[in-house]
Amino acid sequence: MSRLVFLDTETVTLEAGPDVVWEVGAIVRDPGRPDAEWRFQLRPNMGKADPGSLEVCRFAERYELAGHQQALAWYPAETPKPARLTFGALAVSLHTLLAGRHVFGICPSYDTLRLGLFLRRQWGKTPGYADPWHYQPHDVEDEVAGYLQGLDSAVPAELLAVPRPTEELCRAVGVDPESYEKHTGLGDARLARDLHDAVTTR
User: Fold this and answer.
1) pTM here?
2) 118 shares its domain with 23
């Protein structure tokens, strides 16, 4: 069994950059062990922020850094008191956590690109640096669409539309999209995990 991570980031803009991520949710899965949930927040470049992105992820309501803190880490994810990290310590933590893992998510290339840019900024002087995760991310919406098409060649066309209709795909495999905290790092990582499990454990 491969080492997996279900991953999601929240950003202050849709544009790519090394300083646009402000929240990371990660659920790691190792053979023979229960899933482990991690949550991180880090200080973004608010000069790049756009109002729409901030509103969707409820930045003003959920951002927990204060003063000059660079990053916070919660493990387990629901622990009330996070660890305080520098950007450098966060980069080490993320690199260690994600090393050798296969990334699954909802449009995971969005997340791996931005995390990769952040890590490369922190590790930029390290010769031969490479992103720690497996190079091929897996989109769970594509997994679900393929599963449904394999079950029934007459699957409704709207379920196979691009971009993928997330909520309709969820309901088609018995996952209630309303039971997740949308547009949060951990909420979307949990949804990605449950969609993956819905089509791979049957």
Assistant:
1) 0.95
2) yes
